[in-house]
């Protein structure tokens, strides 16, 4: 539809018109989604503008957004009925239907990594979203919708937020999660599953076991850095033992199956 950048309105980038703001777009009422790629200090203003113009799906690619700004964004989004994916998210894709953001990279690589099918993917890592999809694709297993939810300490859509959507989706027959230390998202999901049960089989890949063996060394996304000591691999894995049966493949990798 178009791009926005204050002071650069009137330009044309590969056939895509550039505007100073969303309000200048003649067809703004037909905009379904917005991708936010601006420096962290400007993310809040960019997202507020999108929400004010009634855009209901917003993908924030920028990482390390100030947490206070993220909280304010999520409060406004909840008030206005908007869905936030990110911060620190590469986007989402429904193979053969639509793609939002930079997930999967160039179109040729996307076609190699993703194929239409019935397995949903929710991942805290953008790169691992595509890696997991490709691992499924080469085995002939297609994907329904794959979402990179973001690696910042606070994100707009968590595992629990998205799980009901997948459970209602007739195109999704199973769900695969990529989990990592940092935050309480996995523990929250485990408690939710134990309390409410599931309508879909869930496979969860838990990364980061080696990190517990290297105290004082920080790995991964901003979430794992900011929450160091609160959610280690050991505590994360323990939280899954009640609702989930696990298969131990090697000292670095665990596959958890509900």
Blueprint (SSEs and pairs):
Blueprint: E1 3-4, E2 12-13, E3 16-19, E4 33-36, H1 43-52, E5 57-60, H2 67-80, E6 83-85, E7 91-94, E8 98-101, H3 107-113, E9 116-123, H4 126-137, E10 143-148, H5 159-168, E11 174-179, H6 185-196, E12 202-206, H7 222-226, H8 233-240, E13 245-248, E14 254-257
Parallel strand pairs: 1-3, 4-5, 5-6, 9-10, 9-11, 11-12
Antiparallel strand pairs: 2-3, 7-8, 7-10, 12-14, 13-14
Domain ATP-citrate synthase/succinyl-CoA ligase C-terminal: 122-234
Pfam families: CoA_binding, Ligase_CoA
Protein name: CoA-binding domain-containing protein
Number of strands: 14
SS field, number of helical segments: 8
Return the average pLDDT rounded to an integer.
85
Beta fraction: 15-25%
GO cellular component, one term: succinate-CoA ligase complex (ADP-forming)
Domain CoA-binding: 1-63
Protein name: CoA-binding domain-containing protein
Organism: marine sediment metagenome
